[in-house]
Amino acid sequence: MLWRDGRVQEGTTAPFDLADRGLLLGDGVFDTAMALGGTVVAEEAHLARLVAAAAALGFRFDAEEARTAMRAVAAGHARAAIRTTVTRGSGPRGLRPPAEPRPVLWASAAPLRAGVVFSGLSLGWSAIRRNETSPTARHKTLGYLDAVLAAEAAAREGHDEALFLNMAGRVACAGTGTLFAVFGTSVVTPSLSEGVLAGIVRARLLALAPGLGLVPSERPLAPDDLAGAEAVFVTNSLRLVAPVRRIAGRDYASAGHPALRALQVALSAEIAQACGMAPEG
């Protein structure tokens, strides 16, 4: 299902301007959200992040149109992944953006793959570095080739996800999510300045942790720091809180760790209340 030009269309194919800068230059932003029972989880946060990402690239779009699109493609789905994409639109040949952009927005829905929520992960270190000085490290832009190539390499090595270091050699993030490490009651994630996306679930866990007796911390993490972690997990809007069972050759008993379990339960309850469903659902 696809939303474009103010209406829902069946299938995933629609006419497209071949001069669109999103297609030619990756000049655009996107967002991925979970929808449950037709409700977009954390809708306001996703919209705000999408608007902020476009603003960082230097253009604006109609946020209410994006809301309409997200809700339209979410309707009728019990569980879905919602992808919302905004490009700067078409422009003259060359790199410089047009003086008056005409953004193009569309959204699509796909069934949420069974078992993806809270599923365990094996991570492999990527040879590609995350550039913490680049806006593409802090925003979900359409230039995702580094993550694509890293994911392919990780799969060849038998891993589910790639794990990135930044240019300074510190831990940045996984290919599709934020990394957390647990040390006693301390729950640590790399700060945004390390080349990390401002994840929606990341923010919620940092807010929920103190109420669970946990101490959240945003600070640099060296690869060796992970060796001393009691548990490691990855967060994103579809997996939510995914325990890491292995990084390269090191195994972790993350899935049964009480801190990780407490965060999963608290986040589930919050989402269930927002969507009007039972937490176990």
Q: Please compute the radius of gyration using only Cα atoms.
A: 19 Å
Q: How can the largest sheet be summarized?
A: 9 strands, mixed
How large a portion of the residues is in β-strands, by DSSP E?
Answer: 25-35%
Structural class: alpha+beta
Describe it.
The structure is a single chain. This protein is of the alpha+beta class. The chain has eight helices and 15 strands. The protein has helices spanning 21-25, 43-57, 63-74, 135-138, 145-156, 200-208, 223-227, 258-275; strands at residues 2-4, 7-9, 28-36, 39-40, 79-87, 104-111, 121-130, 161-166, 171-174, 178-183, 186-189, 215-218, 231-236, 240-247, 250-251. The strands form two sheets. Strands 7, 8, 9, 10, 11, 12, 13, 14 and 15 form a nine-stranded mixed beta sheet that branches. The protein has a six-stranded antiparallel beta sheet with strand order 2-1-6-5-3-4. Helix 6 (200-208) links the parallel strand 11 (186-189) and strand 12 (215-218). The radius of gyration is 19 Å and the shape is globular.
